[in-house]
Amino acid sequence: MGSDLTDTNNADQFLIAAIRNGDQRAWRQLIERYQGRLLAFARARLRGPGEAEDALQETLLGFVTSLAHFDESRSLETYLFAILRYKIGEVLTKKNRRKEIVTGFDVDDDSPGIPDPANSETPSQAAAHHELTRQQADVLATILRRLIEEFRDRDKLDDLKVIELLFYVGLRNKEAGERLDRDEKAVAGVKFRALNCLRDYLEELPDERRNLLGSASVSSEATVSRIWRERRLSCLKRSTLGSYVLGVLDEPWNSYARFHVKEIGCLMCRANLDDLSRESERIGDDVGERMFQSSVGFLSRPG
Ligand SMILES: [Zn+2]
């Protein structure tokens, strides 16, 4: 179940290359692909008339005007959500309103380090973002991703839930046990085995990659949680979420999807879900057209 994100990234890279060349059709395609989920995300947090649309527009403008700084080895979707969160934060701050947290664990609760991509080079933001170097984060993400894939391939989704609550949400063994109705000792066992696996995976990496990590914070829970969120390590494929919406997702995936969205409260997957369930009564085309018209002028001229 892991390759869809890679396919998406390839398609996105292709699109971005075209947009960098000033290709308007590619820009329209990008808007069409992402507007629904971004708008759903914004609407969950901004309730004033037109606020969500404005935030979406700002996001697209922010993206297109900072395109030069976008590192295409990163996930476009995650990047767009990061800009959108920043824009939403601006609106909420401006209105001097307490941040509205939908329910449960808010994935961006602890993310002061997400820079405004339009000026991501200011020293304080750089410092916040680089406690762990990019390469170190890559190493950590590699072994975490492998752990998650192992759980999925072996249908050990109950254990994955444990790990997600411990590593991603940051619960203690006892709390995780209560949430999942599992014995605290069983939870501790899952954690123990997971940490052993991570250590093994690290050992199996080529020396030069392993040494990158050095003594850096494999043990820092905040770091693991941040990487987990930023890289969306356990997020569900859009097609899986689509089956979930239609009620045709098989167990144990169905209950896992419900867990990830409802218990973990992953706002990005929730936004995808909202978008998917709205797909029939498409808010879409005129919003998309407006977004396109208001941003297309910022594309670079074909060179
Ligand atoms: Zn998710």
CATH superfamily of the largest domain: RNA polymerase sigma factor, region 2, helix turn helix motif
Low-confidence stretches are: 97-130
DSSP strand content: under 5%
Query: Considering DSSP H and I runs of 4 or more, what fraction of the residues is helical?
Result: 55-70%
- Ligand set: zinc ion
Total strands: the figure is 0
Structural class: mainly alpha
What's the gist of this structure?
The chain is mostly helical and 303 residues long.
Overview of this structure, please?
- The longest helix has 22 residues, at 24-45.
- 67% of the residues lie in helices and 0% in strands.
- The protein folds into 2 domains: 4-118 and 280-298, Rna Polymerase Sigma Factor, Chain: A (Orthogonal Bundle); 132-216, no CATH class.
- It is mainly alpha-helical.
- It is built from 15 helices and no strands.
- The model is unreliable at 97-130 (pLDDT under 50).
- It binds zinc ion.
Give a quick set of tags describing it:
303 residues, mainly alpha, Rna Polymerase Sigma Factor, Chain: A, 2 domains, 15 helices, 67% helix, binds zinc ion
Helix-strand layout with pairing:
Elements: H1 4-20, H2 24-45, H3 51-65, H4 76-94, H5 123-129, H6 134-153, H7 157-169, H8 173-180, H9 184-204, H10 207-213, H11 221-230, H12 238-246, H13 253-263, H14 267-278, H15 284-295
The structure holds zinc ion (ZN).
